[in-house]
Amino acid sequence: MIIISSPIAIQNEIAIIHSLFQEGMEVFHVRKPDFSIEELNAVVLAIGLEYREQLVLHSHHHLAKSLGIHRIHFTESNRTTINESKLKSYKELDFILSTSTHCIEDFNDLDSNFDYAFLSPVYSSISKVDYAPKHDLFEKIKKRTNFKTKIIGLGGIEASNIQKTIQAGFDDAALLGTIWNQNNPIENFKICQQIVHS
To answer: I want to staple 99 with a disulfide (CB 3.0 to 4.6 A). Which of 40, 74, 93, 153 is the partner?
Structure first.
């Protein structure tokens, strides 16, 4: 199960991130699209060295090496501007690469250098207003032809639907709104984690 940061600064955010790691969070996507290099650097440094291996950078990828981060994420628009040789060079340096997709056709067409990709939104988003599925992704996922890249469900995922999501054929799920836009982020994480592990 993957957790994605709030795009904006949140009260007690670093303490919550530390608690999530202590409860067994395996991968944390640092997604702060409007943060400057300095602001993003400060967030990563505040999270601390012990969790560096589990962090994924969504922006300012050039910071990865100096920060000791080996996971980077490409937005859909980033992905269209990067060529295969650049992706290969990241893989040769043992980077784990991820990206975002919004239809199964784009997911199926992904370069094989991507380790996993989000497919969203599965359900109506908790964190984004008026962001709902245009297609039934449970039907669309049946047309999956790319099995080199793991497919991660994102969008509106919470305790009530995470099991259904995994059973439908998603390899894993990512949480955002159920952590940052609701009460009890740690409890919500623990409940979802129990369901996934069972």
So the answer is: 74
**How far apart are alpha carbons 177 and 5 in whole angstroms?**
9
The residues facing 151 across adjacent strands are 117
Residue 153 gets which letter from DSSP? E
Answer whether 44's CB lies under 8 Å from 18's CB: no
- Nearest one of 178, 168, 173 to 120, comparing CA atoms: 173
Q: What angle do CA 112, 114, 120 make, to 5 degrees?
A: 115
pLDDT of residue 126: 74
As beta bridge partners, residue 73 has 98
What is the residue-wise DSSP string for 49-84?
GGGGGGEEESS-GGGHHHHT--EEEE-HHHHHH--H
Q: Is the pLDDT of residue 125 over 80?
A: no
Q: List residues bridging with 57 in a β-sheet.
A: 30, 72
Q: Name the pLDDT band for 127 (thresholds 50, 70, 90).
A: confident
